[in-house]
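Reopening this one. Same input as before:
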Amino acid sequence: MPTIEELRQTRIEKLKKLEAAGLLAYPTETKRTHKITDVLQNFRKLSGKILGKKEIVIAGRIMAQRGHGGATFLDINDGSGLYTPGVDRGKIQAIIKQDKIGENGYKFFMDVFDIGDFVELKGTLFTTQRGEKTLEVSDYKMLSKALLPLPEKWHGIQDVEEKLRKRYLDILFNPEVKDMIQKRSVFWASMREFLIEKGFLEVETPVLETTAGGADARPFITHHNALDMDVYLRISMGELWQKKLMVAGFEKTFEIGRQFRNEGMDQEHLQDYTQMEFYWAYADAEKGMELVEEMYKYIAKKTFGTLKFKVKEFEIDLGKKWEKYDYKTEIAKHTGVNIEEASLPEMEKALQKLKIEYDKKGFNRVRAMDTLWKYCRKKIAGPGFLLHQPIELDPLAKKDEKNPKYSQRFQTIIAGSENGKGYSELNDPIDQAERFAEQQKLRDKGDEEAQMYDKDFVEAMEHGMPPTCGFGVSERLFAFLMDKPLRDCQIFPLMKPK
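Same output, byte for byte:
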């Protein structure tokens, strides 16, 4: 069995044969007249059933090759058309015959062309006795010589890490991955479509920030050479910037983009991912929940054609009545801890009894409550909204007017996980400044996820910000509806170099 390097060297020798014949291995131009999808859709007309036979030119990659004496069958794929499950619309069979292109032309093709090469084929269409739509080749041209072989067609790449590292090959041979990529595109397009139809304006806010704000997360730090200062990659989808747009008089804004959090990796968390956040002036958490429920149903129907999903061990029906869960009640039910009365040592004792691991660096009551909740949420199927979180957890949310110990925050719960979070946004600048100061104290004590004090944002808010509902959801929702790990649902996930 030849090694990869030996196979590569063989192909380089074939490339030299092309050059020796005065032909280009990587020409710029192709005279393609039809995409393969178009050929298949208009086959009767192009094959001469209506207008008479005429030559066409297609281009694509050789995916398979089968020789039969003086004839060779090829499978050509140009990737045209959207991927449809069960139908490979970008593939057609071609046949090269020695008696059609001549002995020398046939021998040259067999000596130089390989599976994986991109080719241009000229010829006429016909249907074989087996009913296969086929192009009979009268001329050919190399468009791109592949120097490495493709993985074996029926098995592809078996190692999971190698699949993600060489994602382009996994996509080439795995219809499920192609399907996922198409659905991912529809997912974000339908979210954008929904929000625009509701009157939201799409905006872009800075990715580099002098203060990482809008979330409890550890940021990436980089250096800005022109200004000679350290800056942060954003950890939210422009939350504080979009609120400044509320101050500026905009009523509805949203942004879809990449954000970055320098934290751990697991099936639900990555450091570089897509997020959407919207901000809606003169709306509160109640209106936000109504809009979010409608939006999730719209996206699910557009992307997957259904509202019913199997996620992990849960059967999820987005079409049923969405529940509302009380934060304090759920923690007490599943752990026996009353978060209003329990001290930090008592919470830690409960965590240890439940065998829940946690990072002790900078650990405090806020982190203890959050860790207890994360244990509880795994038992909740949803769909529904988590309500009444302690105000300490929400430095950017309004206090509940009936019970100021709790915030006006809501989180979408689906299949034991948080798949979206929103607030009645805090717009009291004095209260905001005090909460930022408390967060800074936690940060000074070692809590790297506590929020930074953002003086510019407080100043903007002092000019007046209307009542506003804000909400954010990441690509975790897409991964959950696909019932796959988050990393598998990124097209090119970040991989550690070998």
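So the earlier flakiness isn't reproducible anymore. For the record, The chain has a mean pLDDT of 91.
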